[in-house]
Amino acid sequence: MPMLRLAAVALIALLAAGAAAPAGSALPAAPTLPQVRVQIEPVPAVDVDRDAEAVTTANGTVNVSVPAAYGGDVFVYFNVTVNNTYWFATIDPPSATFKGSTEVHYKVNVTIPGRVSIDVGAEIFVEANVSLPPGIGKVWSASAPIPIVQYFGVALTPYTSSSAANFTAHAGADTGFAFRIQNLGNGRDSFDLHVDNIAELQAAGISVYLPSPVQVPAKVTANVNGNVTVPTSLTAGNFTLSISALSSGAAAKGVSVTSAGAKKIMVLPPDTTGGDGGGTGQNNTTKPKAFLPGPGAAAAVGATAVAAALVSRRRLKRP
Question: Strands 258-268 and 166-170, how do they pair?
Answer without folding.
Answer: parallel
